[in-house]
Amino acid sequence: MVVVTPPRTGPETVAHFVRTHRDWIIRTARELAPVTPPALPDRLALPAVGESLRIELDSAAGARAPRWHRRGDKLVLRAASNSPAGALPLLRDWLRERARETGPGLVAALSAETGLVPSRLQFRLQRSRWGSCSSRGTVSLNACMLFLQPRELRYLVLHELCHLKHMHHGPAFWALVARHEPHCRELDRGLNAAWRRVPGWVFAPP
Question: Which range of residues forms the domain containing residue 130?
Answer without folding.
Answer: 43-200
